[in-house]
Amino acid sequence: MTPHGEEIVPVQARAGSDLDVDIFDVANWFLSKDSLQHKKLQKLCYYAVAWSYALLERPVCKNDLFEAWVHGPVNSDLFTKYRTNGWLPIQKLSQAAASKFDPLSEEVLEFVWESYGDLTQFQLENLSHSEIPWQKARGGIPETERSNEIINPEDMKRFYRELFEENQND
Which residue numbers delimit the Antitoxin SocA-like Panacea domain (predicted)? Predict the structure, then answer.
C-alpha cells in the first residue's frame, strides 16, 4: 500500500534502458506538476529512483545516487543546483518538461506523484527515516549527525520490492 492506503499496481519491466535522462529530468518532471520546496523535491526524486529499481529493475535515470543525510535521502547534484532556494518553493515548469521518459518510467513517476505528492516535505522526511534503505546507509550514525553514506540501490530495490509484494498479498 502507498502512504495513502492505495493499492500498488505492478509495472512490467522491459529489458534495458538507454537512460537518455538524468536526475534533473526527474526533478523537472515533478516540477511540471507543481512548485515544490527543495526538500520535498529531493524525496520525490528519491522515491522515483527507488520504485524504478523495485518495479522496473532498472534505473529511471543517470546520476541517481542518493546519500543518507540528516533530513533524509539527498542527491548531491540536485542539492548543488537548488541549494540557493532554501525554504522557498522552486517554480513550477511547463508540461513540456515531462515528455522525456519512456512509458514505463512515466508510469513509475505518476505512481510516485500520486502516492507521495500530497505529503509535506516533513512527512516525506519522516517516512524516509522510517525505512530500511536510509537507516542501513546511516548505520549507527545518530539522526542528527551528518552523513554522506550512499543509499545502496540494491537495498532500495529489495525494500520497495518487498513492500510491493506485501501489498499484493493484502
Answer: 41-135
Three-state secondary-structure class, residue 62: strand
Residue with cell 546507509: 137
Q: What is the DSSP string of 72-122?
A: EEE-HHHHHHHGGGTTSPBPPPPGGGGTTS-HHHHHHHHHHHHHHTTS-HH
Angle at 47 between CA 110 and CA 81, to 5 degrees: 100
Instruction: Supply the pLDDT for residue 75.
Output: 98
pLDDT at 53 over 50: yes
Q: Is 79 left (phi over 0), alpha (psi -120 to 50) or beta?
A: alpha
pLDDT tens digits for range 113-156: 999 999 999 999 999 999 999 999 999 899 899 999 999 999 99
Beta bridge partners of 36: 90
| Cβ within 8 Å of residue 83, ≥6 positions away | 38
**Amino acid at position 154, single letter:** E
Closest CA to 137 of 62, 68, 34: 68
Instruction: Say yes or no to pLDDT of 1 above 50.
Output: no
Task: State the pTM of this model.
Answer: 0.88
